[in-house]
Amino acid sequence: MAASAFSNSLMSSPSLSSHSSLSHRPGAILSLSRSQISLPAFRSHPLATTLKKKINPSHFTTYCSLDAAKDPSEEIPIELRYAAFPTVLDINQIREILPHRFPFLLVDRVIEYNPGVSAVAIKNVTINDNFFPGHFPERPIMPGVLMIEAMAQVGGLVMLQPEVGGSRENFFFAGIDKVRFRKPVVAGDTLVMRMTLIKLQKRFGIAKMEGKAYVGGEVVCEGEFLMATGTA
Q1: The dihedral of CA 30, 31, 35, 38: what is its sign?
Q2: Is 59 a catalytic residue?
């Protein structure tokens, strides 16, 4: 509406009409002074004026993570940043359940436990383990068969409980299947092992379990296990 009013005022302006003939002549130059053109007065919109008064520039900082929003001067030291694994069964309680002893007890702590269902335990792999001098002297790697044995012992913790009618006299490692070793386990690693009961045949005393071992959240070993829970 303002644009049309402006164009109409220009067309109706006498000063502009007096020079209209010049615009049709070849080579003619139209020169109009500011005094010869009357421009309509435009008033600023009240809403725009109000917005100009109310909008104040403000500065803010966005962060991509919660850690970035923390004051760097208040950063938690690395030795205080990570909590230790919880203890559901300590080594003394484990020794009361499993018949294994040094150097073949390969479970240090149970961190999650559901009798007759599942268990999660850890094995702290250190350079002082007796298998490292021979496997291998120049590159200490935990033998895969000992990882399987450690996982089988965690499976024994699942089954050898009074809640499920088990005792340490009738626990045998019966077999393994679909075993895969994904990554080497070296001195300094913490081996986290989860064993879950898949099927239990009480008539034959056979338990089928699924096991996975992790280091730093990555699977390093997995397989299916058969446990014999009957008498020898």
Answers
A1: positive
A2: no
CA distances from 154 to 65, 88, 106, 159, 212 (A): 38, 13, 9, 9, 11
pLDDT tens per residue across all 232 residues of the chain: 444 444 444 444 444 444 444 444 444 444 444 445 555 554 555 555 554 555 555 555 555 655 555 655 578 898 888 888 999 999 999 998 898 999 999 999 999 999 889 999 999 999 999 999 999 988 999 999 999 999 999 999 988 865 555 555 567 888 999 999 999 999 999 999 999 999 988 888 888 999 999 999 999 999 999 988 765 4
Catalytic residue among 19, 24, 45, 135: 135
- The string of DSSP codes covering 71-134 is -GGGPPPHHHHSPPPP-SB-HHHHHHH----TTS----EEEEEETTTEEEEEEE--TTSTTTTT
Pairing between strand 206-215 and 218-228?
antiparallel
Long-range contacts of 209-213 (CB under 8 A, 24+ apart): 209/155, 209/158, 211/151, 211/152, 211/154, 211/155, 213/147, 213/150, 213/151, 213/185
